[in-house]
Amino acid sequence: MKQSIGGYIVQLFLIVFSVVLGIFLSERIEESKEQKEAMQLLSRITSEVRENQKLLQEWSPYHAEIAQSLDSLSINEQFIEHFIDDKSALYEAVLTRGTFMGRMPSSDAWDIAKAHPLIVNFDYDQLLILSKIYNQQQSTFEPTDQLIEMFFSPDFNSSEKARPNLEQFRMRMQEIVGREMQLLNYFIEAEGIFKFEDN
């Protein structure tokens, strides 16, 4: 009788142990899978951030040149008269590449990550700098559409509005340049956190 009770206890212990072990292993496998997915998510974001940084490094010196040109042109009476006669004078004078920007920085990977439950696995410092970068990136390039809209407005270079419009155009461009400098600083901060490596 004692032997059969002992046998049942051993069998019960083995069953409980197997169930607990199974649950433990299942949880570890799920955690490992989630960790791997989180790392892939972070990898896509860091690649996007690195590409955006390279894009900004390419275009920000050009934007600074445009802002500098606008500083002198906005007080040049001869240019203003020429601008009133022909709107394209501004285009020819400041847009040496024929555009404000070849393409805008992307935020696709970040937008996906924000909606993903695994974002909670990211480090606080990583989330903080990513949030700073993408918020700054959005505010930096919002005025670009406004500049294009201004340029193509029918009365942009009308005799009454040419000077104030040119001044507003100059100020918006300076705003973009200032925000780009802050964004570049955030990218440098991100380099220290993510240890970017050049491909």
If you had to describe this structure to a student in words, what would you say it looks like?
- This protein has about 200 residues and is mostly helical.
- About 80% of the residues lie in helices and about 0% in strands.
- The protein has helices at about 1-75, 75-85, 90-95, 110-115, 125-150, 160-195.
- Helix 1 packs antiparallel against helix 4, helix 1 (about 1-75) runs antiparallel to helix 6 and helix 5 packs antiparallel against helix 6.
List the helices and strands in order: HHHHHH
Helix content: over 70%
Whole-angstrom Rg: 29 Å
Q: Main beta sheet: strand number and arrangement?
A: none
Q: Quote the average pLDDT.
A: 88
- Provide the β-strand percentage band: under 5%
Number of DSSP strand runs: 0
Low-pLDDT ranges: none
* Alpha-beta content class: mainly alpha
Secondary-structure map with pairings?
Elements: H1 2-73, H2 77-85, H3 88-94, H4 108-114, H5 124-152, H6 162-194
Helix pairs in contact: 1-4, 1-6, 5-6
Short description:
The chain has 199 residues and is mainly α. The chain is built from 6 helices and no strands.
List keywords for this structure.
6 helices; 79% helix; rod-shaped
